[in-house]
Write a structure and sequence with these properties.
mainly alpha, three-stranded antiparallel sheet, ion transport, membrane
């Protein structure tokens, strides 16, 4: 009994809330997102936690053996760690000369954020924040605009291909565009993975992982291109290729995101229009019609009597209301007969009533 009462209360509460379709979709998205986060956390825990513990134990063993072998104090070992960590970015050459600074600015504007090099001075940090506040919206608008142009170009190609193949429907649908942008994104990632595997010495899988993390703007920073063999100064062609990969790849990804955003906005507009139409239909169904008589009588749009009247009978639920002036014994072409053929409201005619629509 308690469980039944609990569920009845829940059902009653949900019914009284009368949630719209948009609210239901938003709530469903929130629930699905948090459920997806919980599933991801569980999977990463099972895949990475044990290996992390083993790696930590291994590194601690190396540290102890190193200190014991070379008789290094803990302070000196800590200093060596700092020197090695701080020296790592300099393997690629000067990070803040024009080539390195341009690469950093691109990473900031694209919101990738590898973390391979960061400003150290107060002026550099302040300018980075101001630069990002202007550059990130500018970059989003640019990538979105390029994505729209790519979608337009893809739609033209798809229509021509369908006409060449003599398809019944030659218009480019949203699904066609999604498939086209998805294929182009796959080509860019697989090609970029081969290039970076060649220049960086990574395995193809690690290169593919780097391309995916970069173009989705995740930017973990565990794999960063142009960080070996003074590449920023000695390989200008490779630097240009990396920048083109980032910018063009993000534009293609923006094209896919543009399609998803447009689809979501279309669904929102359709739901809003449907809700508005339902509200209009409900208002029209419940709008009353009254007669100006001594005894005010109201009918709704289906002809149902809404207030007390002297003329109610067992047929008043189905009696029709005619907007003409022929109520009574006489009939016209527009006047529909009452459900009760013996019913003749002659006394209503004698009262000189007029028909009007009441305000809701």
């Amino acid at each position: 009994m308690l469980i039944d009462s609990y569920f009845n209360c829940i059902i009653e509460f949900v019914t009284q809330c009368s949630m719209k379709r948009q609210n239901v979709r938003t709530l469903s998205l929130v629930v699905c997102t948090f459920t997806y986060l919980l599933i991801g956390a569980a999977v990463f825990d099972s895949l990475e936690s044990e290996f992390e513990a083993k790696r930590y134990d291994f590194l601690q063993t190396l540290k102890k053996n190193f200190i014991k072998k070379y008789n290094v104090s803990s302070e000196d070992f800590r200093m060596m760690e700092i020197v090695i960590i701080e020296n790592k970015p300099h393997k690629a050459g000067p990070q803040w000369k024009f080539a390195g600074a341009f690469y950093f600015a691109t990473v900031v504007l694209a919101m990738i954020g590898y973390g391979h090099s960061t400003p150290v001075t107060i002026g550099g940090k302040a300018f980075c924040m101001a630069y990002a506040m202007v550059g990130i919206p500018l970059g989003l608008v640019m990538f979105q605009s390029i994505g729209e142009r790519l979608n337009k170009f893809a739609s033209v190609i798809i229509r021509r291909a369908k006409r060449y193949l003599q398809c019944a429907h030659t218009e480019a649908t949203e699904m066609n565009l999604m498939l086209a942008t998805g294929m182009l994104s796959s080509i860019i990632i697989t090609t970029g993975a081969a290039v970076f595997s060649r220049y960086e010495g990574w395995s193809y899988f690690d290169s593919f992982y780097y391309c995916f993390v970069t173009l989705t703007t995740i930017g973990f920073g565990d794999y960063v291109a142009l960080q070996n063999d003074q590449a920023l100064t000695n390989k200008p062609g490779y630097v240009a290729l990396s920048l083109v990969f980032i910018l063009f790849g993000l534009a293609v990804v923006a094209a896919s995101i543009n399609l998803l955003v447009l689809r979501f906005m279309t669904m929102q507009a359709e739901d809003a229009k449907r809700d508005e139409q339902d509200a209009q239909n409900l208002a029209a169904a419940n709008q009353p019609v009254t007669f100006d008589t001594e005894h005010s009588t109201s009918y709704n749009m289906q002809g149902k009597l809404l207030s007390n009247s002297n003329y109610t009978n067992e047929f008043d639920e189905t009696a029709s209301i005619c907007s003409c002036t022929c109520l009574g014994g006489t009939r016209c072409m527009n006047h529909e007969p009452f459900a009760d053929p013996d019913f003749r409201p002659t006394d209503i005619i004698a009262s000189n009533l007029s028909l009007k629509r009441a305000s809701v």
